[in-house]
Amino acid sequence: MTDTLPPLLLIGCGKMGGAMLAGWRERGLGETIIVDPFATGPFPGATLLRDAAEIPAGFAPAAVILATKPQEAPATLPIHARFAGSAVFVSIMAGKTVAFMQGLLGAGSAVVRAMPNTPAAVRQGFTVAYAAPGVSAAQRALADTLLGATGEIAWVEEEGLLDPVTAVSGGGPAYVFLLAELLERAAVEQGIPADLARRMARSTVAGSGALLAASTEDAAQLRKNVTSPKGTTERALAVLMEEKAWPDHISRAIAAATARSRELAG
Ligand SMILES: NC(=O)C1=CN([C@@H]2O[C@H](COP(=O)(O)OP(=O)(O)OC[C@H]3O[C@@H](n4cnc5c(N)ncnc54)[C@H](O)[C@@H]3O)[C@@H](O)[C@H]2O)C=CC1
Ligand SMILES: O=C(O)[C@@H]1CCC=N1
């Protein structure tokens, strides 16, 4: 897409908001205003305001992207209700439901609830989105362009799926980074020098991700491809794949994060 994006209003420009903004810049920013009291920038091509009260009177965003922490929603959303007549609100806030946001923005306001992840920063994100009734086809197409600017996007028709999605793909990069941390630590425990341990752990996780991305084989088959019968990997997997080890831990971790997303709803 080469057309310039329509006017955008980004509320909160931290890690996720900033990553999305970078993706939009590649698509060609139109008039873009950021409201963030603390962000440092610079944000080329966009205007950073410290307070929503400074938004120029004539500014008419086609989309308002809500990218503050969920806990900031009650303080940050109501002032933007005036855009509800024409703008689509695209929220990436964990847990916050459409009903909760419409309670602050006005009943019937056009809301898309989405969950991206931080690989968005390198345009390899994965976003799942839900469009509430009342979002027009053109507004959904705009949301698709904005959310798809940082990687893959999938749309779901059931809002409740956003809670487990938040647990799996929203938080997923953290679990992968934890794996890199733990591999590095275990390498050092086995006597590998710290700088080599760090390089090995990072490269192994990154390279495995790249292989997975490039392959059409199931993850399970890629795992089997590493595992020689009676070899070394088999010994490690016997520890990790014990029912009370990773299978149980990952299930419980995802269930805990899903429950937390539901708690953040209201
Ligand atoms: N970090 C992640 O991996 C993901 C985060 N999210 C969601 O994205 C949202 C933002 O998360 P992060 O970017 O990680 O947090 P962050 O802390 O990096 O960014 C939040 C930004 O909001 C700004 N802010 C605080 N009060 C504000 C106000 N009153 N008005 C406008 N801006 C204000 C902060 O200055 C900060 O720049 C959260 O709701 C989170 O649930 C969604 C997917 C993944
Ligand atoms: O931890 C969180 O609440 C957010 C949502 C998914 C990733 N970070």
From TrEMBL:
What is this protein identified as?
Pyrroline-5-carboxylate reductase
| Molecular-function annotations in GO | pyrroline-5-carboxylate reductase activity
Q: What is the scientific name of the source organism?
A: Falsiroseomonas stagni DSM 19981
**Keyword NADP, does the record have it?**
yes
Pathway, according to UniProt?
Answer: Amino-acid biosynthesis; L-proline biosynthesis; L-proline from L-glutamate 5-semialdehyde: step 1/1
The record's keywords, sorted A to Z, are: Amino-acid biosynthesis, Cytoplasm, NADP, Oxidoreductase, Proline biosynthesis
Its main localization is cytoplasm
Q: Name one GO cellular component term.
A: cytoplasm
Query: What family, per the record?
Result: Belongs to the pyrroline-5-carboxylate reductase family.
Q: Where in the cell is it found?
A: Cytoplasm
**Domain Pyrroline-5-carboxylate reductase dimerisation intervals:** 159-264
Instruction: Say what the protein does.
Output: Catalyzes the reduction of 1-pyrroline-5-carboxylate (PCA) to L-proline.
Which classification does the entry list for the species? Bacteria, Pseudomonadati, Pseudomonadota, Alphaproteobacteria, Acetobacterales
Q: Which reaction does it catalyse?
A: L-proline + NAD(+) = (S)-1-pyrroline-5-carboxylate + NADH + 2 H(+); L-proline + NADP(+) = (S)-1-pyrroline-5-carboxylate + NADPH + 2 H(+)
For this protein, the record's Pfam families field holds:
P5CR_dimer (PF14748)
Question: Which biological processes are named by the entry's GO terms?
Answer: L-proline biosynthetic process
- What InterPro entries would the database entry show? 6-PGluconate_DH-like_C_sf (IPR008927), NAD(P)-bd_dom_sf (IPR036291), P5CR_dimer (IPR029036), Pyrroline-COOH_reductase (IPR000304)
**EC number in record:** 1.5.1.2
Name of the gene: proC
Residues that, per the record, bind NADP(+): 11-16, 67-70
Q: Which domain of life is it from?
A: Bacteria
